[in-house]
Every structure is written in C-alpha cells, then in structure tokens.
Specification:
Layout lengths: L6 H10 L24 E5 L2 E4 L4 E4 L14 H12 L9 H13 L5 E5 L2 H16 L3 E5 L12 E2 L9 E2 L6 H4 L2 E4 L4 H10 L2 E6 L15 H12 L2 E5 L11 H6 L5 E4 L10 E5 L1 H4 L18 H13 L4 H20 L5 E5 L2 E5 L8 H5 L3 H13 L2 E2 L16 H18 L1
Parallel strand pairs: 3-15, 5-8, 5-9, 9-10, 10-11
Antiparallel strand pairs: 1-2, 2-3, 4-12, 6-7, 11-12, 13-14
C-alpha cells in the first residue's frame, strides 16, 4: 500500500498540541477515531484537498457539509472578497441579511422568519429556548445518537431505562441541565409514544435524516409520527436541518418528507463555509425573539457580512439541476462502494447528498446498531483510503458529503481507492 508522506503534518501537530487541546479546534479533526494523527491542510480546490506535505485527496468531508459546491468556488470566493473589502463586520444591520432571510423563506415555507447565529450549536440552543418559552414547558425529547451541537442540556445520554431523564454525557454538564432532557432510540415508535405519554414536552427535536451516528434514515412514517406525537403532546416539533438543509432537497428534509416542523435549525450550507447558522419558523413564534419579543438571544457576529455573502452566493448557485446532479453523484458513489465491498460485511446508507459506509453485516436502524459496527475495520479502511488519496470522514459516526464539484473522475478515483482499501482488509 502507498504510504503517506506526512512529515510536515507531524511537525505541525507536534506544535499544535502544545497550544490547542488535542492540537485541534474541534475533536473529530484529530482523527483519533481512526487511530492516526491529523493531517494538516494547505488548501482545497473543487473536490480536492491538498495537505501540507503535498498529498492530494478526493475530499468527501467538505468541511462537514457547508461546501456543497466544493472548495474555493470562484463565485463564492469573489463574494467574500468583495464583502471583506467593504468591512468585515459592523454590528449593525445590513441589506444582505434581509436577502438571506428571504432566500431561506423561499426554500423553506415554514420558515417565514429567521434569526442568524454563528454556529449550529447556538441555533439549536436558541430554538429550544424559544420552544420552552412558547410552551411554558421545560422537557425536551431528543433521540439517542443525534447531535444538535454541544448544548449543555443535549449532551445527555439516556438514563436508566427508556423515556427517563437524561444523564450528563460530558463532565462539566450539570445534572440539572440534562434532567430536562428525555432520550429515546431513533426509529422506535413505542419508545417515542411511551415518552410522550409520560412527559409534557416543550419540544421534540430531531435530525430528520440523522447523520451524527452515521447516516440512519427514518423508517417510513416515522417523521410523520414525530409530527403526530408533538401535536398530541402540545409540544413543538423542531427539525435540526443543519446537515440536511438545502442539501437533501432545495427545501431540505421537510420538503423531501412532506413533514413540516414548527421550528427549523439550519447551518453549514447556509453559510457556504464561513461561520453562519440560523433558526426560524412562523412569524407568530419567531416574534417572541428579542427585540420583537421577550425571549433573549444575541450574537456579536450573527449575520456577519462575510458569512451572508458566502451564504447568498452558495444558495443562489444551487440551480434547478443541482439537486438532480447531487443525487446522481450520491447514487453512483453508493452503488460503486457496495460493489467494491463485495462479500465484506458492509452497509452503505444513503439519501440524496449524504452517505455512510457501516462495517456491519445487517442494516443500521438506530444508534445501538451503529455503535455495534466494526469501528476497527472502519478505521483501517479509512487509513487505507487516505494512503490511496481519498479523504473520508475519520469516524464511523459521520457522513460523507458529496458536492457538485465531485465529477466522474473523482468518483472513479474514489472507487479505485475503496477497492484497494477493502482488499487490504481481507
Ligand atoms: P456547529 O455548532 O458545529 O456549527 O453545529 C452543530 C451541529 C448541529 N446540528 C447538527 C445536525 C450537526 O451535524 C452539527 C455539527 N456537525 C458536526 C459534524 N457531524 C460538526 C463537525 C465538528 O463537530 O467539528
């Protein structure tokens, strides 16, 4: 197997760990889940990432989703450059923020009004604060394996038995914060019904196409059941579309599934790779947010001109054919990976614009299934892919993010590398 020259990455990593926790600014980048040190990036171009040692990779992480047009798209770069030349931040309203809110509303009819934040975590935290204010209730129901950012109350694991109060999943998270969180398994109607029968909820929050336990699509009818159970319980239904939004369809998962949430959390694509996220919903709900209403939420760089410029350019480049092309790329990749895996115990889960390769003989239906996948095999396969010039998500619990920059050549390169990597396992 070819070996990576990573001397410069190793040099940078040795210094990084003296200044940054784990040498990185976000844990998954450290590549610990695949048993190697991180690769430091020099630049990206289209579907390609080039590291500081000059190794070139077909990149299927694409910054975890924002880069739906690939790296350094000239029109997005130009938009950011032009915005920066006029000033990087004002702490005052700009016309671009109105335009971006309008583009969001045009794609997501349920989001009549939105508020921008600088991260998905902030957007999640704010949407749930609004749900609690609107309902006058505290309890939030989430699904095991789903991730909505590092919000204290949502860094929770299921307590003893199903449908009971959550327990902290990280030191530093107060038990009181997770006591208002109830966690049930994904795709489990009985557990969901038991929890909604037992608790008066402020909200049911879900990634409609969960991609933080790897991609585990909802069973037929399950999203509809979330809507029905939220209504029966008097809770809001909150879709976390940070990943699925503007990716699985022009109108995200709520368009593709036909299930409409009360509030939507957005991120990634909406900022085009510059820090930006948002939450939104009907005016009647959103006008509770300060200063229109009494629910406080704020952010120095919320709606930042550079992020707004990148987000507007990104959304406006997503023309009618974009989603067809992205779906075709995803299908081509998924079918090729299944073929390359041959008789190996591998599942390839996919929805348009997203994909996960699980090392497991049976389909993955929930987090327990995902956690039972062979992480060592995934890690070895991922390391082999890197050696063959393909940068796949360095964790079994993440998704691949196809982009419009991934052409047939990128797919062919990936499938050749995947075959070689699968072969190196057996
Ligand atoms: P941020 O705070 O990282 O911008 O967004 C949090 C978030 C919220 N909701 C969903 C569905 C998300 O996937 C995320 C963040 N996604 C991860 C990747 N699975 C970001 C990568 C990282 O943590 O470095």
């Amino acid at each position: 197997m070819p070996s990576l020259t990573d001397a410069r990455s190793a040099q940078l990593y040795a210094r990084a760990v003296t200044l940054l926790p784990g040498g990185v600014n976000s844990p998954v980048r450290a590549m610990r889940a695949i048993g190697r040190d991180p690769i430091f990036v020099d630049h990206g171009a289209g579907a390609e990432l080039v590291d500081v040692d000059g190794n070139r990779y077909v990149d299927w992480v694409c910054s975890w989703g924002p880069l739906i047009h690939g790296h350094a798209h000239p029109e997005i770069v130009a938009a950011v450059q032009q915005a920066a030349a006029r000033g990087t931040s004002f702490g005052a309203p700009t016309a671009g923020e109105i335009e971006l809110a309008a583009e969001i509303a045009d794609r997501l009819p349920s989001v009549e009004m939105s508020r921008m934040t600088s991260s998905g975590t902030e957007a999640s935290m704010s949407a749930l604060r609004l749900a609690r204010a609107v309902t006058g209730r505290d309890m939030i129901l989430k699904f095991s394996g789903a991730y909505h950012g590092h919000v204290d109350g949502l860094l929770a694991e299921a307590g003893s038995g199903l449908a009971t109060q959550g327990i902290p999943a990280s030191p530093g998270v107060p038990a009181a914060a997770t006591a208002a969180t109830v966690i049930v398994p994904w795709n489990d109607p009985d557990a969901l019904r038991a929890a909604t029968a037992r608790h008066e909820l402020a909200a049911i929050v879900a990634e409609p196409y969960p991609a933080n336990m790897g991609l585990v699509p909802p069973d037929a009818g399950f999203l509809g059941l979330l809507r029905e159970q939220a209504d029966a319980n008097g809770a809001l239904l909150v879709f976390d579309e940070v990943i699925s939004g503007f990716r699985v369809a022009r109108g995200g998962a709520q368009e593709r599934s036909g299930v409409t949430p009360d509030l939507t959390i957005m991120g990634k694509v909406v900022g085009g790779g510059v820090p930006a996220a948002a939450y939104g919903g009907p005016k009647a709900l959103m006008e509770r947010i300060a200063p229109a209403g009494d629910v406080y939420q704020a952010g120095t760089l919320s709606g930042n001109p550079l992020a707004v410029a990148a987000g507007l350019a990104t959304l406006r480049l997503l023309d009618a054919g974009a989603y067809e092309r992205l779906a075709a790329t995803t299908t081509r990749l998924a079918e090729g990976l299944r073929a390359a895996a041959g008789d190996l115990p591998v599942q390839v889960a996919t929805v348009p614009g997203l994909l996960t390769v699980f090392f497991r003989a049976e389909p993955v239906h929930d987090y327990a299934d995902a956690a039972a996948a062979d992480r060592d095999a995934y890690a070895a396969w991922c390391r082999a892919l890197l050696a063959h010039g393909v940068y796949a998500p360095p964790s079994q619990f993440e998704a691949w993010f196809p982009s419009l920059a991934h052409d047939d050549a990128a797919i062919e390169r990936t499938l050749a590398a995947a075959s070689a990597a699968f072969a190196s396992l057996s």
